[in-house]
Structure formats: C-alpha cells, structure tokens
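User: My advisor asked me to double-check a structure prediction for Clustered mitochondria protein homolog before group meeting. I don't want to rely on an old file, so could you generate it fresh from this sequence?
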Amino acid sequence: MVSKTDDIPASVPNCNPVDIADEAGDGAQDSKETSKTRLKDSCGCGHGADTAMVNGDGAHEHTEGAESKQGGNSETDGGEETNEQEVIVIQDTGFTVKIQAPGTEPFDLQVSPQEMVQEIHQVLMDREDTCHRTCFSLQLDGNVLDNFAELKSIEGLQDGSLLKVVEEPYTVREARIHVRHIRDLLKSLDPSDAYNGVDCNSLSFLSIFTDGDLGDSGKRKKKGNELEQIDCTPPEHILPGSKDRPLVPLQPHNKDWKPMQCLKVLTMSGWNPPPGNRKMHGDLMYLSTTYTFNPKPSNPSFLSHSLVELLSQISPAFKKNFTALQKKRVQRHPFERIATPFQVYSWTAPQVDHAMDCVRAEDAYTSRLGYEEHIPGQTRDWNEELQTTRELPRKNLPERLLRERAIFKVHSDFAAAATRGAMAVIDGNVMAINPGEETRMQMFIWNNIFFSLGFDVRDHYRELGGDAAAHAAPTNDLNGVRAYGAVDVEGLYTLGTVVVDYRGYRVTAQSIIPGILEREQEQSVIYGSIDFGKTVQRHNVLNEKNESVELCSSVECKGIIGNDGRHYILDLLRTFPPDLNFLPVEGEELPPESQRQGFPRQHRHRLACLRQELIEAFVEHRYLLFMKMAALQLMQQKANRDAKNDVPAITETAETPSGSNADTTQTTASDSPSATEVSTDSTSQTENNSKPATNGLLEPTVTQNGECKSPLEGKELEESIPGLAQAKELAETLVAEDGSCIGVRFPDDSADDVQKQKQLLKDASFFLVSCQIPSLVKDCLDHSALPMDGATLTESLHQRGINVRYLGTVLEFVDKTPAKAQLEHFYRIGISELITRCAKHIFKTYLQGVELSALSAAVSHFLNCFLSSFPDSVAHLPPDELVSRRKSRKRRNRVPGGGDNTAWASLTPNELWKNIASEAKSYYHFTIECESVDQVVEKYGLQKTTLLREISVKTGIQILIKEYNFDSRHKPAFTEEDILNIFPVVKHVNPKASDAFHFFQSGQAKVQQGFLKEGCELINEALNLFNNVYGAMHVEICACLRLLARLNYIMGDHPEALSNQQKAVLMSERVLGIEHPNTIQEYMHLSLYCFANGQLSTALKLLYRARYLMLLVSGENHPEMALLDSNIGLVLHGVMEYDLSLRFLENALTINTKFHGSRSLKVALSHHLVARVYESKAEFRSALQHEKEGYTIYKNQMGEAHEKTKESSEYLKYLTQQAVALQRTMNEIYKNGSNASITPLKFTAPSMASVLEQLNIINGIIFIPLSQKDLENLKAEVQRRQQLQELGKSEEPTEDRPLELEDKIPID
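Assistant: Sure, here is a fresh prediction for Clustered mitochondria protein homolog from the sequence you gave:
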C-alpha cells in the first residue's frame, strides 16, 4: 500500500508502539508479559477498543515528566494541570496470577488491572504450551469470568490468584475459529500471506542478517577475540563502481521458511453440514480426508478437545514437526509476526507453490458475499462504529487514550474492508445497485460500504474537466475529510472515506449516512447546494460558545442530518483554496514574476487546490511580516488596547497591534479572511513566544501543542479555537471568488471584500513559487532534505506545501541553479519520479480496456515497452475463444470503462515513450527529449531497476523476483509469467495519537536542550501511549524507538540501544517496506550499535545490506552513499581489511567532494580516514598526501588555532616521523643486505575504541566531556537561542532537525 505519509508530521517520520509483547507467548520473560496486551486487538468484534490502558511496568515517573513538561517547554498547558492525577490513574501497578491449563504445570502471568479477561485468552492462544486451545473459559474459584470484564472489576482476583483453564463445548462458530487458529499456527512461518498481501502480514529480513535475535546477550556467538575469522568480503555487486544491480538479493533466502510439513491436507469436508440425524448426536462439522461418508467413530477411537492433540495421537510425524514448528514460532521476534495496522504490499515475490488451504477458500467465498462469518452480527455498521468512537468522552488522559485507540482500530478495519470491497467491485464480484445503467455509472454497496467509480457520470464535472476532475475529486475530498477530522469539532461528522486505485480504476469507498438511501437527496440537504449553486442553503449555526456564526464553505459542500440525528458534512473537495497558478481566470492577472515563469498554466481540471501545509507556511510567513510592522506601532497602541470594534482588515500593511489578538479572534467570523489568517496565527504564536496566552478563548486541547511547529499541529491550533474553525473556512474557501466556481455570483456590496480575497489567493500561489520552491532547493543543497526515492521526494515537496504538479517547475529551477552539480541526486530522482508518474497516468487508461484473462500479458507488455531495450515488443494475446466469447455477450456486464479489449496489444515502445514525453509536457510542463528508455537512462543517469521499482510501487504491480535482462535487443525482458499480481494502491486517513505525540515532541525538545534523561523518560512515556493507541506496529512508534535507541547509545547503554534499534528496523521493514529509505537508515543505525557492542561481523552484514538496498533504490550517486561507505570503510579498517576498506573510503571521498564541494569539512574528514588506512598499510607517502589535503581544508576553514587544525598538524608530524623511520630501515637493508640491524617498526592495528570514535563522528554523535558548570552555561545558552529562534522563526520545516543532538549530519 502506498504509505500516505503526507499526513504524518515530518518530525515523526516513523513512529510505532513498543514491545508489544516483547516476548508475548514466551512465558519465560514474564516481567515483560504486561506488554502482551498489544496482540489483543484481534477480537475483531469491535470490542478491540476496550482493551488496556498503559501497562504498569512501562510507565516511568510520569508525574515528573508532567512537571518538567510544564516547566521546560514554555508550553502554556491549559488543559494539562490535570496531568498528574491522570497519570496516576494510568499507573495502576501490575500483579501476577497463576494459570492452570489441562495437562500443563501452573505458570505465572503478569497482568495489569485495566486488561480485559479476553487478553489473557489471547496470550494463552499464543503461548507455546497452550497455543492449541481456543474454546475454553477462565474460572476463578469455579466462577466463569466474563471475557469483556476488566480484571480490576473482578471480585476476589488479586496477586497470586489461581485461574483455571476449563475446556468448553464447541459450537459451529467455535469449531470454525478453532480450525482457523490451528491453520494459522501451521502457517506461522510461511511467508505466503505476506507475499499475497493479506491479513496485514508483511515481510521482514532482518533476522537473516543478525542470525536471529540480537537479544540481550549482546556478544552472541563470539569465541574469544578471534577477529580473523570474520569473513568480510562483500558480494561483487555491492562493491563501489559495480554496475550490476541484481534483484534477487532483495529477498534473501530464509531457511526458516522451508515449510515443515505437519499435515498433507486439512480441509472442510464436502460432507458438511452434518445431516439431521448426526446433528442430534452433536456433530458440528467434518474435516475431511476420505471419499466415503462414515460418521461412526473409528476403531480404536480418538477423542480430544483440541485438534492438535488429536492429530498428535494419530500421527507421530505431526507431533514431532508441530512441536518443532511452535518452538521456531515463539523464537521469532514478536515484531516479525504481529499484524500491521494497514496492509503493506511487496512489489516482488518468489514463485510460491499454491497449496490447499480450506480457511483461505472459505474466506474467499464469504468475503464475496460481503460478510465475515467469524464476526458476530455479520456485517458491521461502519458508519455507526466510526461516529460512535468519535463521540467517546475525552476529558482526561485515560479517556482520550481509549477514544483514540477505538478510532484508530475502526479506521484500520474500515480501510481493510473498503480495500477488499473495492477489489471485489472492479473484479466484477459485486452486483451494482443500479444495474441497468452503463457500467461506468454504476454504484455498489458491499459490507455496508458505498462504492463509486472515479468517472464523471452525470456531467457533474463537465465544466471542471470531466473525467480528469472526477479522478482528482476523491483525493481532494479525502484531504478535506482529513482536515475536518483533525479539527475534531464535537457534533460535526464526516464520512469514513478510502480511495482505492486498482487495475486502472479509481474507487471511492464511503461509509453510509443512515437513511440517505431511502429518501430523496433534496429533502435531506440542509446546508450547501446540490444543483451547482442555483439554490444554496446557508444558515446561522451556534459554536461551542453559543455565538451565532454564519458557516460558509464552498458551493459543493453539503450538510446533511442523518436519520441518526447527526450532522454530516460531505463533498469536501474544495476545503482548501484553489491554486491560481494552474487555474487561468478571465481578466485576472498574476504577479509579473509568476508570469515570467509561465503561470498561470492550463491544467487538466479546475480542481487544483493549494495544500494545507502551504496555507500554514503562508499564514506564518504573513504573520512574520505583520510582526515586523506591528513591532513599531506596539508601544503607542498599548494604551488604547481595546480597539475592539474597528479592527481593520490586515492585508499587506498591518495596522493592528498584536495585542488585540484575542479580540481579532472574536470578530474574525464576520471579518475579512485576511484578518482571519493573520490573527489565527498570532494566537498560535503568542504561545510560542512563551508569553502568556492572552486569549481566554483557547480550549484546553489547543495549547498542548505549545511547540506546534509541525504542519498538522499548527492546524489543530488554529482550528480548535471556537469561531476560528469557521473563520479559517472562510479564509480557505475563497474558492468561489476566482470565478472557478460555476454559477456563483456575489452581491455588489461585498465587491471590496472579494477583491481582497482574490489578492490573497494570488499572494498564496505566488508564495509557493517564489518562497517554497527555492527553500526546498536550498534545503537539498545543505542536505537537510535528503530524498532517496520517489516517495521521499514527494514527501519533501508536500512538507513544504508544494504539489507534485509543480515537479517540472522544481526541476527547471534546479537546472538553472548555479550549484546544479551538487543537486545531481535530487535532479535525477525528480526526473525518474516525473517519468514514472507520466507512465502511471498512461498505464491507468491502458489497463482499463484489458480483459481479466489478459491482465498478465498486458502488464508484461507495458513493462517491456517501458523498460526493455528490445525494439519491437509484441504482446501475447490470450487464446481467442476467451475474448470472442465475452465479446458476443451484451456489453452491459463488462467491467467499467469500455473501449476495445485488445487495443492495448498494439502499443509499441516508441509510441509509449512519445506519450510519456507529451504527458510530461502537458501535465508537468517539462520537456523530456528522449525517444526510448535507453536514451533516458543515458541522458539522466537513471537505472532500469530503480524505474521498475518506482512504477511497480506506484501502480501496485507485483513481479517475480529474478534477474531481468533489460538490455537485450533480441528478446523482451518480461514474459507474462513474470507478473504475479496486481495490488490496490490505497489512500486513507491516518488517525493520530495526540497525547503520545505531545509527549514525543516534549521529549525531543528536552533532548535538544541537553536534558537527556528527562527526554528519555518523556519518550518512553510517548512510546507507552503510542502502544496504547496504535497497538504494536506503527510508523510513529518506529521513530520513537529510533530516538530512544540513540539516547540509550549516547547515555552508554549499548545493549538497550541495540534492542530498541532492532525493533525499529523490524518495524520499519514491516510497516514501510523492506527497501524503503527509512529502513535503509535504520539498518545503518543498527550496525553502529552492533559495532559498539562488539558484534563486528553483524555490523558489516547490516551495512552491506543497507548499501545493496541503497544501490537498488537510488544508485551510487547520492550524498548518503558517502556516509554509508565511510561506515563500511571504518569497520573494515577495524578488522584489518585494509585494501577493501580503501575502496569504500576513497569512494566516500569522491562522493563527498562532489556533493559538498572540495573545501567542505566532510571532505577533510574523509581525507583523514583514508590517511589512517594508508598509515596502517605503512604507505606513508599516500597517507601524508591525504592528511595534507585535510589539514589545508581545516586551516582555511577553521584557522590555525582550531583544535581540528592542531590535531591534523600533530598527525602530519607523526606520519612524517614514521615515514622517515621506514626510509632509514630500507636504506639500512639496501646497504648491509641480510645482516642489517633493523629497529622494529611499530605497525599498529587500529584499536576498536579509535574506530568507534570515528564512527560516532561521521554519524553525527559527539560526546563532549563537560564539567557541571559548563553544562549549566550550555543549557542557558541553548534556551536563550531557542527563544531568539521562536521570535525569528520562518517556515522551518519540522522534518529537518528534530532528532539530532550535536548532529551536524542531517540523518534523521
């Protein structure tokens, strides 16, 4: 799935809940068993939400955290006074109970009071010795415990109580659950679910490189100090300069995956269901192995409550293999097997033999009907679940955690169900609700979800760009839903919305408003317009303060009261203002600077909107201008501060004193939007400047954002201020003014206002081109933004509010930059992204005409035309009878779309590349002068494997993992057997864990101020809360773990750093993908901690893996490669592989020189590292040469007196002495032959400590020995600087430096 990270504030690139059960089901480490609860959300019946709060053991001194947060972070924490009491609620300590299961010894289990009984069930179903039981109850003194009761509410349950596991009689449902669970146990090591992208399984390969778990033992498998035994030779294709980019190593062979066969076949019998006479004897269902029906028990008869025990009695081989399998299963790290919250798809997979699987077969059948049998109540009422979770109370921390957890759980279930439904719709397995209409106009309902196709059906979008607009509208609508969801206004509801792209179609899935299908739409719309503005409903609404506000939004936006009495707002496709750079309007001129750059440009549709991040940056930019002007007038205006009734509109020149912020806020609703924009942000800034917040208006929720620099946070701030949500609406839906909205006219008396708003729109669009694009390029030049592939490039554009349609403009800007050579990597990734996006647009329409039977042939043909050097690629049409038979039937039941079914076969490489070039011109306004893939590769330095990865990920193609010969001119690279699958690409809302996020941010702030211990505690706390909301796996937890590992490392706790970073790597592989740029970074961090822990060979393996992935994803020519190669070179130097080490270090030197310029300090450091290796080889002349280069750079940049310069000069003296000594010895040998008296030379292997010191330096980790007094001064200085920064802060994106301490290298 495409991880839509635009809505993850950049400072948390990958967060994820902790230790889910560090050892869930291991039983051995019971102290950790508290965390097991995370595995539990799988009950699937919607109860998932009620599970535990934070578990006892992890909650660190929370109260202390709360105080320091109040103190240190200059946060005016309105609603946080309650924090300490809340925190205490959460810290109910855990206790231990004894569990007695039939046939096993009693064992202890650590539990926490807020857990539910059901979670103990889950743990037992995961433990090695009890995993085969599913149908049992837990009894305390003979009383059966209620599954959904919290442990603290059970009378008589206390520390040391004995719980008995009692087998219960089966029902058909329980029997099915049992078979399903046994099947899951048998398949637990089988990766096929991950390859097929089902049940939220995904791949992870870390354990192959670390030989299993790095665990607590640290130095595993080390005999003495035998360094020589390490095999350091990297595979050929990883060496610097290698042109080979093999695909197969992407998925190294995992020996655990050889399936241990326990059973040949386990299936539901064709004799089901039991006939009446057998039902009366208690037969529930049959599992079959035979062809004759004989319901009598066999002789001798076997009877068992558990299928596993039964099979173990019958088959010794089963017993042996099953035991071995379970041993292996529980040895795997829990993070390798827990489900991810959203499905991640793999774009490569090996050829897997298809095996019989009754559960999968049954699932496929029932999901076609749109309900899941093992969930009570059959279909879920998604709308009710989504809205009810929003209505949960949120007064204190435990309530908020419960609420956010419930919202997140329902969202991830809804996204999964919507994706399944959308695929079923496109695959033709769902009946339309309007079957009589043409296919592209059909709508569908499946599993209580409404599906519509991204076509312009009733000419709704005719004026806006037809199908192109209909394709863009759902994502705009989703952004609107995301924005309103984040504002989280009580009493205002949005629809659950998921946008799925699958097989060339765009499907929008929405939850259904109760009653909307029964009545005519006209009657239910109480706000907005359904006939394009001929009639518009506007009305006064009351906000939280019961003040009357006229709510205004764009003309398509509708307000509907459902049968459930809730107020729904929908069709939010114009929540954000239009982008005038791509919307030519009669009679409106853009600034001359924009016109020079060729704006406004024609775009395919008229729905081009500015991004939320841009609005925020623009408001902040305006606010800074305003501050500068207002500062002058502040003094004389302080006296008459209550200029409340005539606040002037603030446009270019501002006359309002910033003192009147509070008042502006109240008047904004009726005021002009420009005033709104400014005042809005002034409120957020008052907090940031740690002045007291003058606004009595702020709700408690608002100010926790204190440091709100992240795009999302700022928004919540502005919008959770009563009245401002609507005012912001005004500001953001200036839509109508530019005439882009059809049929909307304005009364004459507002002409002045409208003019101001138009100006504001133009200014915002101009700001994007004149400020945001240059600032992105500047960030890339100083390497604070380091995109590695298409996804990370898109992310860095989005963080700055730049839409991808500006990609051509950005590339042109780079092309004209004097420092273009240092932006080569950025330009290359940009070109590759532009080309693959054009190819994706073409592929979309190409696929729509393809019959299901010809899908693999069509996809392989397209890839051949796109990537293969073979000039006349010919498509293989499927056998005729399939196509012709379908054709002769009526056209009605064909898949949506239409067109000639075999037109795709006539595509040629030449034609495709012509289309790509013209698409680049028309969509991105960028010229690609290339007629074939080879010319493109040649001209822009691209790699075909990288292009293959980008197009596969963007379109959901899954290909066979093997070596493809792209460059053969005699045969095409792909055959239809190479295309294994096509997956959906899914966009959805990512609900946030707000409290956890604030803890995380406060922790980051503390760390940046140098309070490592407090920072560490806050981050641990954040980790607990994240776990609580998201369960164990989530990108945000990943960031949390990474930062924690880094802090552990800096504070000297290497084993802990290793354990946290291992989790971060596993989580990144599982949640983002095995070759995602983030995963590559996590591998690098882990290798550093391995080295520090003495695991040298593991450190090397991890670095080689990272280098391989990086070559595949972006090639060798990338600034980050220099860091990676320096790391590899240093480790190799440490294990005395000098020649190899030099290859990597010299490559790093070349890359650093290229991207940082020959006078950069990075280059000086590279020279020094190379010199050290030459010294170890006793090649003093080369060593001197490199060290001299380094010395010159230090001297010129830092001056003679700087310690770096002095160190370098000392080292030069030492090298000169060594060189002289060596020369003397040589002369002696020449003169006296064999009887020369030789003074032994000192050849020292580098000490591990010195290598580690260099590793820390290049990875941006610096340990500074300081006295207590120094520390105090440093902290004071840091705080002074932060205050200065707050005042002068311009659009600093959060991404860039949240995680560094003294890092000068923007790694995180």
